[in-house]
Amino acid sequence: MLRTVGSLLRLGRGRFVSVPPFPLWGLTCYSSGGAPGGSGPQGPAGKVHQVLAQHRPSQFDKKILLWTGRFKSMEEIPPQVPPEMIDAARNKARVKVCYIMIGLTIIACFAVIASAKRAVERHESLTSWNLAKKAKWREEAALAAQAKAK
């Protein structure tokens, strides 16, 4: 992919600089079948999907792969998987977590509404709590002033 990219780099105000293509000499490429080199299976257009590296999934990655439905059990997960598979599983897990958080937020909103309705029925409000608290402080301050005066 990088070999076919043009060799001009724009520096602003219409000036271009010639840049040699990116060398891929030291990188090992694998086809989608996991076979080294370009001898793997080719797609309908004769194009080989290349994966530059394999990734060894951590325990957390394995749990994400299970939770998103990529594999049915821990034993089915191979020792190395393509990074694209882990990225896709993480993205799917991120979306699921967001949906769960949205649902919990909506449930919490209804709980707060129900709690506020019950508080209104008991004639409780933040204003009445604040006035009662300040009256208590004034009373304590007055008792402290009387104790100092004696």
Automatic annotation (TrEMBL):
Keyword Transmembrane helix: yes
Subcellular location: Membrane
Topology class, membrane: Single-pass membrane protein
One Pfam short name: DUF1075
Cleavable signal peptide: none
GO cellular component, one term: membrane
Classification via InterPro entries: DUF1075 (IPR009432)
Transmembrane segments: 97-116
UniProt KW Membrane keyword: yes
Keywords noted in UniProt: Membrane, Transmembrane, Transmembrane helix
Family to which the UniProt record says this protein belongs: Belongs to the UPF0389 family.
PANTHER family xrefs: GROWTH AND TRANSFORMATION-DEPENDENT PROTEIN, PROTEIN FAM162B
Protein name: Family with sequence similarity 162 member B
Gene symbol of the encoding locus: FAM162B
